Amino acid sequence: MTPAARLSGAIDLLCAIQNAPRRPADATANAFFRERRYIGGGDRRAISSIVWDVLRGWRRLQWHLKDISGDISPRLLCSASLLLGGETMENVRKLFSGERYAQKPLTSREDMALKGLEGKELSTQKQPIAVRLEYPDWLDSALRETFGNRLPDEMEAMLGTPTLDLRVNLLKGSREAAIRELRRESLQAEPTKLSPWGLRLDGRQPVTATQAFKDGLVEIQDEGSQLVVAAVDARGEHRVLDYCAGAGGKTLALAMTMENRGHIVACDVHEKRLDGAVKRLRRAGVHNVERHLLVSGDKWAKRRAGSFDRVLVDAPCSGTGTWRRNPDARLRLTPEDIQELVIKQAQILDRAASLVKPGGRMIYATCSLLACENGQQIDTFLKRRTDFVRLPKEQMSELLPAELRNKAQFSLTPLRDGTDGFFACVLERVVTDTKPEETVEAAATTPQAEGPST
């Protein structure tokens, strides 16, 4: 495709994303490209790069274009992103030639709005801090509660392009073997600093087309997500529950740490997500996993009360920690979403807790930066459930790096750790006189949420 055709494709994709405001942009993009299979891999990456640059700079682009009359169209947003990224007005005009596969020429209104941007920077100190750092105004106090004086630096790191992290599947081979296999296909992967199974690549790379991926030697998984799995400390003799399993990313890693022994139950309320795990499990060579669909009125949990050594609760959350990868999520998030999520997380915690055996552990994790979803959620849970305590730090998993092993809960950020934003807390169920089935009945009295999802 020509540069003009790629820009035209990006404008069409951005239109599709705007027309589905509550749908994640990556889901819209996947559907967009499935319907246009004639677009090759390199062109898909180029088109996506233009669109994701717009999404990452959304508030700043709107600020630069605020004085123009009428709607700020995808044509204007893509053009402004190119200009503020260093492109010249002359070259932008050429991209709108009106020739085959190119957009129609810029209108006088568009040309007037855009030519004043040439030579300017996307970010400027004149912009309000929430605009410059691309977060909703209403989240300012919550983010300051988390980061304090580090807020500008932490949110600046959230604007960057994320790396591509892989997890080596030790059921199929070593990290060194995976590096060699990837290099044979011209992909230069380096070991991650924190995860013992991680590899890191720069930018977008065609990993899924490699033999290493097809053979199940590597899986795409952020290093922070890998560290959550490390905190679970699942072993071959354990019964493990992945309560919000989704499509099974962490389930696969748990099976690896258990060396394909023991028993894992992967649960979710979304059947399509669980079905999506089947192919991944087969590719990874995993055979110790049972899938279970959670439905209203299901007696499954009651029958298995107090029977799991490890219960991982990868709770549905705001996703604020993944803004580097999903910049559109900043635009979709509302205060009402946070209120609903905090209630849902508490309900899921209560239900999952009843499935932990005395002496067993529950690991609560989110990809959120917000205290109300993280530490505060754990504090209020411990007030409700006195049979749980934070795990003593000397019992934390040895799979974790030393800097994370000295506390029962930890958080990760792009600035400090080079990962997505994650929170994890390890809780232990202490032995009491209360029977497991009694806590199941107590948990059942809480209002029912829609259920876990990832």
TrEMBL record:
SUPFAM superfamilies: S-adenosyl-L-methionine-dependent methyltransferases (SSF53335)
GO aspect biological process, one term: methylation
InterPro entries: MeTrfase_RsmB-F_NOP2_cat, MeTrfase_RsmB-F_NOP2_dom, RCMT, RsmB-like_ferredoxin, RsmB/NOL1/NOP2-like_CS, SAM-dependent_MTases_sf
Binding site for S-adenosyl-L-methionine: 268, 314
Domain SAM-dependent MTase RsmB/NOP-type intervals: 154-430
Entry keyword set: Methyltransferase, RNA-binding, S-adenosyl-L-methionine, Transferase
Catalytic machinery residues: 367
Protein name: RsmB/NOP family class I SAM-dependent RNA methyltransferase
Organism: Gluconobacter vitians
